[in-house]
Amino acid sequence: MTTIACTQPGCTGTILDGYCDVCGSPEGSAPLTAEPSAATAAGVGGSVSTVSRASNRLASTALGSARARAGSTTTFRLGTSSKRLRGARLGAGLTTIPPVPAVDAASAIMKNPVVPEEKRTCPSCGSPVGRSRDGQPGRTEGFCAKCRNPFSFTPKLVAGDLVGGQYEVAGCLAHGGLGWIYLARDRNVSNRWVVLKGLLNSGDADALAAAIAERQFLAQVEHPLIVEIYNFVTHEDAGYIVMEYVGGTSLKSLLKSRMEAAGGRYDPLPVDQAIAFIVEILPAFQYLHDLGLVFCDFKPDNMIQVGDAVRLIDLGGVRRLDDQTSAIYGTVGYQAPEVATVGASVASDIFTIGRTLLVLAMEFRGYQSTYLASLPPVSDTALFQKHDSFYRLLAKTCAPDPADRFASADELRVQLLGVLREVVADRPGAGAATYSTSSLLFEVPTVSGQTLSWQDLPGLRIDENDPMTGWLHTVSIEEPNARLDALSAAPESSPEVLLATAQAALHAERLEVVDTVVSDMLTADPWEWRAVWMSGLAALARSDFVTAQSAFNAVYGQVPGELAPKLALALACEESAELDVAESLYTTCARTDANYIAPCAFGLARIRSSRADLDGAIAALDLVPPTSRAYTEARRERAGQLAASGRGLPALSEAMSSVDSLTLDAKDRATLLVGVLDVALDEVRAKGARPDILIAGVPAAEPSLRQRLESGYRELAGYADVRQDMVALVDKANSVRNWTMQ
Length: 742
What we know:
Serine Threonine Protein Phosphatase 5, Tetratricopeptide repeat; 742 residues; three-stranded antiparallel β-sheet; six-stranded antiparallel β-sheet
């Protein structure tokens, strides 16, 4: 049997039954990181990521906690849109990350297990302890001068110790928040390597037994992305978690190595790689959350790369969501601000994920001080200026109000994948997108003409989890007013029924009904961005482009990995003269997904034509590929712009070449031909012949142009519906014909 390798970059899978067994791509699918298309980067707009062109400076409709504070009776997140966002190999088939070789366990043992003095802090209050004084080295054991609690940085276990009658200590691996972490061999199971991590250090045997019993749930955690917990043991009044040894490199170590290689300068991961790491680990968080557990202490230290895979390690801080008594472990700069008062939650885990992502992607100065619970300003952060969607995603992930964050790890993952696609598409030299993706939330745009209105924007996909979805499938009435009547008889006014009502009202031009639906939905759930989407469509229908802009900007902030809100926002910005922002958004969509090329190419052409940038407009129209339904329209528009450009005979020749291969209506082709030849004849009469230039197959000289133009007028006369028009066209043909003397 012949083995067929997957064609997706960075994927090591093989094709089985027509699909890759790793990333799921179909056999023969185009690589997602395909070479740039013939459309150049200039076509989609060179450098477009500047502060002045970013959407974050625009007004945004109130959503979430801001709307809840404004008077809604709902103060908690309903999460209606996240149920269908439940969650591929490292890089997700979109980018590649260099593999990291496994680390041999024996070589990982510290030769001199000493905690540097600058890292010695009191485990109780965090104050510096164990520091040098008067030329004397700092103590590794003692009492904190501030809180008087004991501290110790001396390993409690040494090589050869047998813990729990089963685990023979080999040495120290690292020092963590709960003390030293040790490497040992399991004498009962093939001498496999295991890790011992301190659980509790107490002389109270009952307290120790209770603590171990309380943590037994960790042994039930089984997920391929999470380090396995084997056992809990005691040794000399101390408790230890026995964990699987994962011989990889932590992302903290990876960052440290990059910094050393850069001569001490912080060298973050490329943003696409940073995103890919987080995308890969998010299913582990969803698994824990589904079990009613929260990780609490996520940071680069707790994620390890092994080969081309990742693992979540160090479950010492994991706790039950309903645990209101046990200690919460976290790290300054990563922990959510509300944890100290309301405890850990799924939302606080989401916050730590966002903070970790930013630390991986850039030098986040002040993240443990000035920006302890906030993000640095966009104006001061080049990464945010370059990748607007990345910033918007982090703003939601790390929102001050927990209810404003992503409702689940799966919801975050879906949006993060969208952002990753945009980041990869923004690489130097990239042109228009050559592949398409499917959104869980929006339909694909179907625009094939030059105009773009609210009717042309992608529709919302129906949520199959809605209780009324089945009933809605039975409502097949298309006429808007009749459909509204049918929807009014729905057994239940679920969100999908309300959205369907708003959509029908839009088509019936009953915008007051849309307003009522939007108000009702946002009163019930201030985080319901789909209602704001409908309000944006209604604003476009009213030609209230500033309000539409605000609405679509709010939706963009809620689902930053989706392209539909960006396309809608681009249209609203174009209509409200925010042309720089519109151009940036059209560019992002065009180079990220092939489904969006046509509407964005026409949008870019309109904007650039308004600036008299003919070259830019032509480059935009050239983005539309021959396989697109909009190709004919794009080539006709290209020909029209060149013909009207005033650039002389070469431009007129190119105008006709633009439509040479098209199957056009005969009358349309004749009309275009006559228009171009008429201008060319005037040009030749004014500036002289250019027989080296061919226009519609004839030299740019007066006799040949007259002859071709005459036949063009006579052809048009044959299509005339009114005799008067036919006579006028024949007269024009006679007026340009070549006269000869007999």
